[in-house]
Design brief:
β2 and β3 form a beta hairpin. Helix content is 60%, strand content 9%. The C terminus is likely disordered. The N and C termini lie far apart (48 Å). The longest helix is centred in the N-terminal third of the chain and has 25 residues. It has a three-stranded antiparallel beta sheet. By secondary structure, it is mainly alpha-helical. 14% of the residues are buried. The protein has seven helices and three strands; from the N terminus they run αααβααββαα.
Amino acid sequence: MDRDPAAGAPLDQVGRIQAEWGRERPDLDVGPQGVIGRLHRLAGRLTAELTLVYGRYGLSEGEFDVLCALRRAGEPYERAPGELAAHTMVTTGAMTKRIDRLERAGLVTRRRAADDQRGRIVALTRPGRELIDRAFGEHMRNEHRLLELLTPVEAAALEALLREWLGRLDDPPGDRTPDPGTPGR
């Protein structure tokens, strides 16, 4: 079994890939694969673990996301389709397909907006609210189970690192507008 020379531990799949690239392309620094590759693999594993719960409620990941966005809206649990798209980070076309499926299942309704006859409003039905409340409760228990693989200190440190990294990707330094009240920014 190959061992990671830096950590002394057996190589995982990403480590083996890095070693192969190191042999084949020693002119390239493949170090970033250690983080990016593992995050990519972790994301896939986490998605698989999360979608098992959604499936138990007859929901796809996207449908679960729409129902959550409506439930988080608070009473009367409704949003415009464009607002739902923004809260779920999908296109309006993809949102329409999700809403169509949820409406056929009786979990949401659509109606014209009172202030704009061209606009629509999507609302949770009572069965939709009951379903997402049950599904979200199990979802949170599942997320707790997954995070219990880390210590509380590790989880907090990882969350802080990911928040910072994502913030930098979402707001690259060249795109930042200096805030006169914040030194160095």
